[in-house]
Structures are given as C-alpha cells and as structure tokens.
Write a structure and sequence with these properties.
Elements lengths: L1 E6 L5 H14 L3 E6 L6 H4 L42 E3 L2 E5 L14 H11 L6 E6 L5 H4 L8 E6 L3 H16 L4 E7 L6 H8 L3 E5 L3 H9 L9 H16 L2
Parallel strand pairs: 1-5, 1-6, 2-4, 2-5, 6-7, 7-8
Antiparallel strand pairs: 3-4
Helix pairs in contact: 1-8
C-alpha cells in the first residue's frame, strides 16, 4: 500500500502521517516513510536521529530506464534494495527525506518531484510493507503528478473555510489524475463540527481526529510522538484498519 498525506499548510499532515506510521508499526507492518516536505519534520516527530542523505540525490537508482548504469540501478526495486545511505532505520521504520537536488547533470537532472514520482512508481512492496509520504503543503505537486502512483490519498482538513476550500481543490486535481481512493480526514475537529465535514464531503469523509492536549504539550516541550499512545493513536489504528480493508 502506498499512501500519501496531503492538505493545506498547518492542518496536521506531519502529525497524522506520524501517527499513521506508528499505528502501522503497531500492526506489525514494515513502514517506509518519505518526508516530501522541503522543510522536513518527520524525523523530529518520530524521534529519529542522524543525518539522512536526501533521495533527490538518489540519481543512479532513478535514472531513466535507458541508462542502465550505476551501482544501485534496479528496474523495480524492493524496499530492501534501497540503499541504506538514503534512510535512517528505527525498528520496523525506514525514513527517507526527499530534499532538494543540489546540482544538475548527475544522471537525473530532474526536479525532486520527478524523483519521488519515479520511486513511487517503480517500488515493489510486499503485503506487509507500506509507504507513507508526508506531502508538501498545498497543491503544487499535483500539477506534476507526483501522487499519481499512490494507492490511497488522504486529504487532511480542518473545519475551517480555508482548509475546506483547499481540500476541494485537491479533490478536483486528484480526480483529474484518476486517483481511486481519495479520502478526507478531519483534524482538530470537535464532535459538534463533524456534521459540517460530512455535509461537505459525504462518503469521502471517513474519520476525524479531535484536538488533543497531549499533542500540544509534546509540541511545546519539543518532544516527538514515538511513545505517544493517546486518543489520536487509537484513531490512527482505526484508520489503518479502514485502509487495510480497502485491499479486500
Ligand atoms: N489533533 C491535534 N490536536 C492538537 N494539536 C495538533 C493536532 N494535530 C496537529 N496539531 C498541532 O498543529 C501544528 C501543525 O501540525 P503539523 O505540523 O502536523 O501540520 P502540517 O500540515 O504538517 O504543517 P505544514 O504544512 O507546515 O507541513 C503542530 O503544532 C501540531 O502539534
Ligand atoms: Mg508538515
């Protein structure tokens, strides 16, 4: 399963992507997390240490099919084929960051978004592996079709006009890309606001996460979410079960 998390800036993409990653790990999956935000936060939220070489520099692996050279080149790499240089490993989690391409002319002089799209397209997963991509805020990457190869797109929305409008814009772009499982997730939604999202998004709206004081506290204290097992973790487990039902 390849999952991308999108939405307007600040709606909670990285927080919910992290919780989803933790929930998948809890269910025994191996997770490849990809932080596609140019200012990445997943390493901090998942309390992963160490430098990570951005996959934007994984030029050999992702060179055009015609250029079959380079030590890492594989046509359809499996997660275990991906060079460890580009990831940090923590238990069942592998974390990669997209980053930015530093210099052109190193095999794949393409924008980072193209590198990510190729990786998502060619990567082969086993049934016990999942890829979770924390997307850059907004809609720019939709124009480049970066999310075209994914199986499930989550659009995070808050119960505010601006966020709802961006969500609608994303839904429209996702339709143009023929994406199948495009699902709206509410964040920081009070019970009294759930109906608003149901009215706006109908069946696409599948679950909402309430405002959570522990998340706020951890943020203020500069702590990540690795050992967070509060109410939003339970919601994330529900979400995993929902997504895994889509396979059937
Ligand atoms: N359900 C929640 N309850 C309380 N605080 C939350 C909740 N979800 C997210 N937050 C807080 O909201 C802020 C923004 O969340 P986050 O960084 O996950 O958003 P984002 O969409 O990834 O932002 P960006 O667009 O900058 O990447 C963070 O301080 C986070 O701790
Ligand atoms: Mg983020």
């Amino acid at each position: 399963m390849k999952i991308a998390v999108s939405g307007k800036g600040g709606v909670g993409k990285s927080s919910l992507a992290s919780l989803l990653i933790l929930a998948y790990l809890e269910r025994g999956f191996k997770v490849l997390a990809i932080d596609a935000d140019p200012s990445p936060h997943l390493a901090r939220l998942l309390e992963v240490q160490g430098e990570i070489t951005p996959i934007a520099e994984m030029t050999d692996l992702l060179a055009e099919r015609a250029q079959k050279s380079g030590p890492y080149y594989t046509l359809n790499p499996r997660v275990e084929d991906l060079p460890e240089k580009f990831m940090t490993i923590k238990d069942g989690l592998k974390l990669m960051v997209l980053g930015a391409i530093k210099s052109a002319g190193t095999g794949c002089a393409c924008p980072e978004q193209t590198v990510l799209r190729r990786l998502l397209t060619y990567l082969l997963l086993t049934a016990q592996e999942v890829v979770i991509v924390d997307m850059e805020a907004g809609v720019e990457h939709f124009g480049r079709g970066t999310v075209a190869p994914i199986d499930v797109l989550f659009v995070i929305t808050q119960p505010f006009r601006g966020s709802i409008e961006t969500t609608k814009q994303i839904l429209k772009l996702a339709e143009e890309l023929n994406l199948k499982n495009v699902l709206v997730i509410g964040n920081k939604v009070k019970e009294s606001q759930e109906n608003l999202l149901k009215d706006e998004f109908g069946e696409r709206f599948i679950i909402s996460f309430p405002p959570d004081e522990e998340i706020e506290r951890r943020e203020l204290e500069g702590r990540g979410l690795w050992d967070y097992r509060g109410q939003l973790f339970q919601k994330a487990l529900e979400l995993v079960d929902f997504v895994e039902d889509l396979r059937k």
